[in-house]
Amino acid sequence: MSELPTDPTPDSFTAFKDSFSYGARSDLNFKFLKNLSDADAAGFVQELLHRLGDAFDDGDMSRLLEHVLTWQARGYAGAGRWTYVDAPFTPLRKPLAASRLALLTSSGHFVAGDDPQPFGIPHMTQAQAEARINDFIQEEPVLSVIPTDTLTANLRVRHGGYDIRSAQADPNVAFPLDRLRELAQEGRIGELAPAAYSFVGACAQTPLLKRIGPAWAELLQAQAVDAVVLVPV
Asked: What pTM does this model have?
């Protein structure tokens, strides 16, 4: 009789919580756990299980959502090494109802049939994007041009840095083109620029800050855009 395979070495708790961030258990809704101390992460899990037990009794699942959102905010507060102390600020020179607005997001949206094909890979899947997140953050971003009359049904999204399921179900949660069109129809904004723009925000930050971002600003200025709605993810 052959011996049964031995179990692999179990993860430490630190390895467990870190594995949700582009690791073996990659779950982009919970990658914030990596930013928590072991003690805080243990407290999060313990309280999550406690609230789950309460939800079994009364069927109220809202307490679970509230708990996760609270700890997501805590986990991401102050996270990252990219901080910008100062930024130029220019007041609007005309009323919003007379202004031309453009939409720019880091959500990774593009128009069906106009796939940016990262790394030259056609039809890259979301799973492939997540697996190559470390490659994305070393690459310069590619800007997708999305005509503002594009139907929501013709939008596609791919991004290795966040869970895109909500953005697939309703693109407006990360790419609010429908909402801006409604505001333009209501006269609350003057008009939309002919195109909206999106890119994968998990990219090389230095060239984005020093060269690519300023070039995009010039592109928008050339279209007589008065203000830009920025949607980071």
From this structure: 0.81
